[in-house]
Amino acid sequence: MTQILMPKATAVWLIDNTAMTFKQISEFCMLHILEVEGIADGDVAAGIRGADPIANGQVSREEIEKAEKDPNYAMKANKFDSDELQPTNKKKGPRYTPLSRRQDRPDAIAWLVRNHAEITDAQISKLIGTTKPTIKSIRDRTHWKINTINPTDPVSLGLCSQIDLDALVRKAAEKKAKDDAARAEDEGETLTPVESAPLAEEKPKVEHTLESLFKPSTE
């Protein structure tokens, strides 16, 4: 089955704009049905904007109409060239963000900072094409737009792909796990158990009396 780009954002759109069942949406977006129900209830994917799968070429309108008419119909996604989904080994330059979307960067930064604390400022900067001072000002709540910022998934804003975001989150989580393990190991080595600490050698106790000090030696 063709991998769906922005599955949660697509699910949001399908829930809001079609009569498809939760089961059909979960199968098409490759999400657990409970997750789809959570999206519908507003408990999951809060702040994510719906992504129209027809507009981005992932499915045809005819397929959606078939699914709406038959709740047992499994909607089929359009096939994509594998080169469009798999990252290349070519060196990438700075990410270009259209001018119309640059105003959404603070919302995306706030969402990443709130939901993925394991991602570093450098990684956020590279993912959505922003600067470290901007990220820092949002973390410190000193950004000039801080009162109007609405944390929003960068994928739904079109600032990055779901594939890039998932890969970054996985990489950051693995690095954090390694760092935590290394830190725990270092702290364990610095603490020596009381039982294993060497005991100071007890010196024989020497008692001197006034008589013994003035007693002539017999040697």
Write a brief caption for the model.
The protein contains 11 helices and no strands.
Structure write-up:
By secondary structure, this protein is mainly alpha-helical. It folds into 2 domains: 7-85, no CATH class; 99-189, no CATH class. The chain is 48% helix and 0% strand. It is built from 11 helices and no strands. It has helices at 7-17, 22-29, 33-41, 61-69, 82-85, 99-102, 105-115, 121-128, 132-139, 162-190, 210-214. It is globular, with a radius of gyration of 31 Å. The model is unreliable at 81-100 (pLDDT under 50).
Blueprint (SSEs and pairs):
Elements: H1 7-17, H2 22-29, H3 33-41, H4 61-69, H5 82-85, H6 99-102, H7 105-115, H8 121-128, H9 132-139, H10 162-190, H11 210-214
Helix pairs in contact: 1-2, 2-3, 7-9
Order of helices and strands: HHHHHHHHHHH
Helical residues, percent: 40-55%
- Average pLDDT, rounded to a whole number, is 78
Q: Tell me the major beta sheet.
A: none
Q: Report the portion of residues in β strands.
A: under 5%
Decide which structural class fits the backbone: mainly alpha
Using the alpha-carbon principal axes, give the shape.
Answer: globular
Q: Radius of gyration in whole Å, from Cα?
A: 31 Å
- Give the assembly state of these chains: single chain
- Which regions have little confidence, pLDDT < 50, spanning 5+ residues? 81-100
Helical region count?
11
Number of strands: 0
The domain tally reads 2
Terminal-residue CA separation = 104 Å
InterPro entries: TrcR (IPR010421)
Pfam family, one: TrcR
Organism: Litorimonas taeanensis
Protein name: Cytoplasmic protein
